Structures are given as C-alpha cells and as structure tokens.
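Subject: mismatched residue count in predicted assembly?

I count 1032 residues in my input, but I want to confirm that the predicted structure covers every chain. Input:
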Amino acid sequence: MSRPVARPRSRPILDGATLRLGEHEVPLRSGALHYWRLPKDHWRDALRQVKALGLPMVETYVPWGVHELELRDGKPVFDFGERDPRRDLAGFLDLAAEEELLVFVRPGPHINAELTGFGLPQRVLDDPEVQARSPRGNPVVLYFPPKMFAVPSHASEAYREHAGEWLDAVGAIVGPRRWPKGPVVMTQVDNELGFFFRSGPYCQDYHDDALALWHSFLTERHGDLEGVCRAHRATYATWSDASPPTRFAGDLEGDDLRGELARQLDWAAFAEHLHTDFARHLRHRFDRAGLGELPAVHNVSIGEGGAPVSVAGLGDAVDLVGLDYYHPTREQRVIKRRTLYLSGTTGAAYAPELGVGAPPWFTPLAHEDSLVTAMTACAYGLRGFNLYMAVDRDRWYGAPIDALGRARPEATAWRRFLAALENVGFHRAKRDVRVALQWPREYQRLTRATHLLGTVSPAVLEAMGGTPVELCRADALGFERPIQHAWWDDLARVASALTAAQVPYVYVDSDAPETRFEGYDVIFAPSYEYASPRRFERLARLAAKGTHVVYGPRLPERDEALLPHAFNAPGGHAPTRLDDTMAHALVADWVGRFELERPFATLPPVETTVHEIDGEERVLFVINPASAREAELALSRPTVAVDALTGESIAGDTSLRVAIDGESCRMFLLQSERRKAPRARRRT
Amino acid sequence: MISAELRFEGFDARSWTNLVSLFLPGLPERLDRAPDASDAPVAEGEVRARGSLLVVVDEDDVILAASHSQRGRVRELAGTSVDRTALPLLATRAGAHRVLVLREGVMEELAEQLGARFKSDDSYLAQLLEVIRAARELEASGELTLWPNPIANVPIPAAATFERALDLVLPDGRAAVLALWDGPLWTAVVLRRRHGEIDLVAGPETLVRWTGPLGGDWRRDYRVILDAVARSVAPVHFGIFAEAPTVRSLLRAADAGTWAQSVAVRNVVISPMPRTVGAALGADAVRGIGKASARALGGLDLAGALLPFVREVRARVTHASSVSEILGFDPLKVLGAILRRDEPPHDE
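Triage response: the counts match. Full output below for your records.
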C-alpha cells in the first residue's frame, strides 16, 4: 500500500497525486461512503469492503443540513451522534482508523450529495440575506428534484458567516483526528463551485454583497472609476452607475460595441473571481476551524469548458483542483479532452469524484460506463481519484458495494483495475508530452457572454453532451470571425491533426502558472483581434527560452477591454492562419522538426498512450472510441504486454495485435525492458 | 407528488437502466450506435442520427444561433428568418423530428418567473407546474414555439388534481409494485405514498431483501412479492407483473384492446387491480372488440352499438372515475404518442 521515503514530516503533504505521510507515500485513491446514510452497525463491513477493493482511503462528506437540528438562541445546535447514532462522525472516523483506512473529509459547506437543498439547512436557504439574486432581484431557483430551492450567494456575508459556524463545529471533531493523531489526511473546500448549475451569463449574482465585490473587482482590473469608464466606453458618475450587464446588447456597433464587449468580458471574469474569492475565504475559515494543516482540494463539475470558474484561479485557494467525471462510454473523446486539460493545467490530474453509478435523475449510467470512464481517464493521464460512490446509498445506484456493505459482482473488475494501478505505482507515472495547446480563457469568457440559452448554460449544455459553444450568438461582433466559436474550432483542428498523427498533447489553461508551460517543444495558442496582454507576454518569454510558439490566425491589436494595445509577436514569427489542411501540415512539420515520437502507433480511430514509471515504459493503454475491432500497434522492439484486468498476454516483435470492444479501453502492463533515455522536456 | 424526504434505494446499474429503458426508448440502442471517430473538441460537420433542432431568434425572428441535438451547431441557419408556420419544413431540412424556437431572452424570463413565483414550502410537483405554466404563457405570447407539440391542448392541472388522479392508482398509505422478468428478475420498483407524497422508490435489491430468494416462476413469485411488500412497506394497492418484452411493447401499443388481451391471457398479471384500472381495461377491451369486429364484420360499428351499455355499467360504479376524467387527458395515450415518436426508426 505505501512505501517509505526519506525525511519524515508531521503533517500530510500533497505531492502530485501522492500523499506523503511521514516516511510513507500513499496514492491519492479513495472510495466514497456516506456514514449518515448507513445503519451504524453496517459501517465496519462497508469500510472493510472499501479496503478490500484495494483503496487506502475512504472519503465522506459531512452534511451540514443533517447534523444541524435547530437554532437555539440564534445559535445552531448540532447532533454528532448524541441523538442519532448514524450522525456519530467521531465514531466513524475512529472506526476507519481501526480498520486502517485513511480518511478524506469533505465538510462543504455545500455538498450536494443528492440531499434535499444540497445539504444546506432550510433556515439558511430561506434567509433572504443569503439568497443569490437575479437581475430583477428574485431568488435564483435550482430546479433539481426532490425539491427546488433558492441558491445561496457566494458573496453573501450572511452565508459566509453561517458557513463559518458550521465549519467550526466540524473542526472540533475532525481537527483532533488529523493525521498523524488520527486518520484524516485531506479535506475539500466546498463542492462544485459554479453558481449551483444556474450559471447562465445573467442568472446571477446581483446580491448587494456581490455588487460590492463587482466594484472592487473593477477597481483591481481598471485602476479606478475613470479606468472603468474608459474600458466600458461609458460615463459612470458614481460606482453605483457601473452596474453589471443583464443582457447582451448585440445591436451596437463600432466603439460602443467594443465597450459592451469589454463590460461583458469583465462580468464573465468577475464570475470566476467571485468563486475564487469564496474559495479563498473558506480556506481561511478551514484554517480557523482547525483544519488548516490538511491539504485541501476542490472539485469542478462536468462542463468546466463553459463554467464560470477558473480551474487555474481556484488553484490559488486550494492545493489541488480536480474535475468530477460522470460519462457514458460514447463520451470517450470528452473524457480525453477533459483529462488532457486537467493534466496540462494542474500537473497532477485528480478526480475528486470519479463516478461509479449515478443519481437517478442523471443520465443513466451502466457499470461499463463507469469502468470505461475510469480507464479512459487514466489512459490520458488521470493519476488519482475518489470512486464516487464506493458504497451505495440513498439516492444513488451502481456502486460496487451495496448499502449493506456487500460486494456486488461489479466489484471484481474494480478490484482488478485498482490492483493493477497499485502494483505498477501508477500514481507516479508520467507521459512524455511535448506539445501543449493553450486554452485561452479570455475567449472562453466571450463564449459565456454570448450564450443565448440562459439558465441552460454552456456548462449545463456540455454536461448534457453538447459543447459550450453550441448556442452562442453566431454573429462576428465586429471581428473577422465569431471568436466565441473560432477558438474552440481552431483548438479542435489542431487536436484532430495531432491525434491523426498520434502525437501526445495536453491543454494548458492560459491562467495556469507559467511553470505549467515550461518544458514543451511546441505551444499552439489561438489568437484573434483581441487577447490578454499577460498571455502574450508569457508566450514571448517562452519563445525566448526556446519553445516553438505557434499562434494565430491574428496578432492581436486590442487588449481584453478592446482598447488598442501593441502586442509583440512571440519569437518574432508571423501568425499562422489555420484550416484543416494547414493544421495537418503544421503537425507534420512539428513531428519532423522536433522528432516527436509516436510509440505504439496504430490506425485511427484507435489511440494508444504510454506511461513511464521510474524512467521505463511500463503501462500501455489502448482506447477505442469506435466499434469493436482488432488494432495493430507498431513496435520499436519486441514486446510482451499483459492485460491488467484479464491477464491475457500478447506478444510481438514488430507489431502487437489487440482485439478491443467498441467504446472501450484496455490497460496493458509492459513486461519487456523499455527504459528511455532521459530528456529535459515536460512529462505530465 | 414526491416527498422532500424521498428515499431511493436498492438498484444496481443494470436494474436501474433496465427500468429507465422502458420509458426512454433510445437507451438500449445507444450502446449499439457507432460512435464518432474524430477527436475532441467536437469539430463541425459530423452527421449523427435524427434529433431535435433548437433555434434562438431575435425580435424579428431572425436566427441568432441554431443547434441540432445530435450534430451540434447548424451554422448555415444563422442569419436566416424563421417562418413559424413552416416548422415541419425546417425540421426536414435540418434532419430533425422536433423544432423548438426560442426568442432571445426567453430563458432568462422563464427563470425570472420561476424566481418570482417560487415558494420554498411548495411541493416539487407544484413548483414544476409553475414552471410549465410560465412556459405555456410564454408560448401563448409567441416567445417560444415547439413543433410538434404533443401536449399542446393538454390542460395543465393543478397539483391537487394530479394528487387526486394519483389517489386512484396509489392512495395514501399504500404501495404500488412493478416487477418484470427476462429469465431472472430484470427490474422492479416499489413505490410508497405517505402523507400525500411518494416517499419511497425501492429497487430489486431491496425487494429481494424483503422476499428472500424467489422461486424463478414469475407467475408464482408475484404472490411472494405482494406479501413481502405488504409486510415491509405498506398494503399494496396496485401491482403489475409480467415479462419485460411484453410490457415494453404494450407501452408503445397503438392498438386498442392489447392491454386487455394481455391481462386476459395472463401475459400481464395485475394484482391487486384497482377498480379504476379495471374499468380502464374494460373500456380498452370494448374498444378492442369493436375494432376487431369492425374488421370482421365489414365495418359494422359494434363498439358504437355497445357504448350505451358500457356507459350504463360505469354509471353504476359510482366510486370509480377514470384517471383521464380527473386529469382531463389520458396519460397512457399521451405517453404512447411520445414514445412512438421518440422510438428509433429501426426495430428493437
């Protein structure tokens, strides 16, 4: 389960997808169990089954709305097992320790967990001072079953205060049980930040506290009110005049239109800022509550491509940002894109929720959907995950362990998969990736700002199997092309060309730290008439250090306020105009110029990925997003590969023949020696 | 209609997806559909199966954006005008079997209406009906248009009306059971109603915990199930037991008399049978007989001849009124119409 390392420490340290606990390292793999939803006398059996799956850690939410009983003299009264034994959080943590399981605790304040009101107490949700506000001042209602509720405002001081009281209560129990004194090794700050899925551009938040934050955000961004007036092409006599947009005025022209775009882009950026600000506030509260010495993560839900949160920005507030995964097998390429984005942007691709089963009001998911999702995500670089759920419970179906703590037949496949990951040390694996596609945040914001479907937001659209750009305005808004679509299309062209050429790549969010961009041979950066000057300055620095930076189709002329700005061409090169033919030609040039390797090459649509552990190629994934077939993989040397789940062994001198089902993934352990010469370049 | 304390339990992935597949006909087929071969993010130009077309227009009905549920963006429609009287033609051109036209801002308006009318004490059904009412008002004012609209003339009942209709098949303090076999138990669901709302949805794992191991002959096992549910949950008011393929085809059946026939030959066991269900089956039988006899007798309208007799019989059954009467529409008919339209073109 763990191996000793040098230099013991007194608190858990998160190092990539590994937890360092003193002399030991533990892979970041866990399984979810909701203690309050099982009879207490089933806890031990369920914990043992989690461990029998091959997981070193169990994860649980701590539900505020379940533990809070009432208000007395204005103060919340909590039950932690004194009245209902299922609420005995301390007992659960101590039992986990007895069963030699570590614990990952997620105390919210918001947890969802398919609880009514997403786990928040009704008195908090009903507080008008807490409720997020629509443009007309109405509550913002989330329509999920079994009961709609008005969502809280993340800016609300009242909400933050209530949440702080809850975290203090949790901290009193969890704090004394932090490793090494107890089993708790990690926490999560809140859950799936993103306006509670009510994330259309004008859904929220027009709460007074949010408006105050909006004004301070504008000051940070533009210096002062005069700077805001200049950016928005407006005359604001006072700050209260600088109100946020409530619709997109697409019928303007010329500089008026540019001012409108600047205001809309500010509003889209503000949504990200609001969430990061809230996460930072909560992290501080976690510290005050006695949870500060634990690594903290945050999970972004499906639909991050259109969400009002910045994965990179949230990384300022927590130690690791991950993505949640709930996908049917037909979404393998979505899983690929999300994992490559996570891998490139964070450097330690982690899934705080890797769905096993689903809630009944979600897209129905079969066992194969969950397992193929997990394997496909690992194929593209996922290094750690929390199986959600490992143990079944109310308002869920499909976990490998039932609600009585008994293993279901599906548990066998999970056990084999987890054993394979453990035996090979997959959490330490790296892929040799030399091409990065820069994910341009300022254009993603334009996509959100021009979205036309309101509460069915870009993020919700993506979660439903669409794309975040599908229902944006199609007009060009004064640009040569509609940038709100173009960035997505241009990234798709290059990604398709790289895939056709079997060249590994990742996406790196433009807001990620500069270190995330270092070590690549090639960076492709979409750019149009306007761009973030900071992004371009960074590209110039990378080009100066030797990275081959390809940008285009335009050298920008305006900044994010659409004001004129002089941009320097990275590396002094002209922009590249892309079409499908050009994209393939570009990639062919990169392959030749940088001798990009393409191990285990095969014919599309099948793809392969190779993972190195301790400098040696050890794991091969074969991914088939199409119908069942036999794939032939080219070998550079004789190879023996053993299927990690079935034990089937295949071998070849110059090629390997692999039979693979439709919409599936196979994991092979490479037996022959495949040590690679060390390179200074990026491995993810 | 569903409790805020709703408990859902006892399904694994297979039994839940089986149950859902009865009502989402595309579900069994999606695993067979050839997936897209290209890379992410999705590039344009991919042609997928039939689906729905969603169009957002400005105040002059000029298209601002259009998207096909299977193909994504439909770029060529942007900038063109929508003729709301010619939506079938638009659907054909776009390769869709349904079109939804939305005026820009209508979703925001719907959200504002939902927020303005929101009452946190309301049941989920009441809240949902407010959304539907607001959407219907927007439809009436031309802000949104759906073609075809299978519920265009369907009145929106009040929450209390739905609850009265539900009383006929699942009264308060009672349970309903559906169990289907395909060899072994294929899926099952037990619903319980308490304090006016459904507070329990239990699947086969929970059911088998109550019954113990079943014998394997579903025409006998159903009695064991009924006893176990009555003991563990509540007295059973309504139970349907059959083989899965039988129920799947009946849910999509257009022919009158097919339900009644299946019950008559015990391909479907309904036990207990609420009076209202019996009356509905009787009416279905009459319609079936009438249709069959009309074919056999060269068009003689036997049903028409029998109808006065049927009416007299029903008038004597004073407690039984039909679900359709209460709601103002026949839910099975509407469901069948929707399912037939959504059914994929090839055979199952």
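DSSP finds 17 helices and 27 strands in chain A. Marking this ticket as 'not a bug'.
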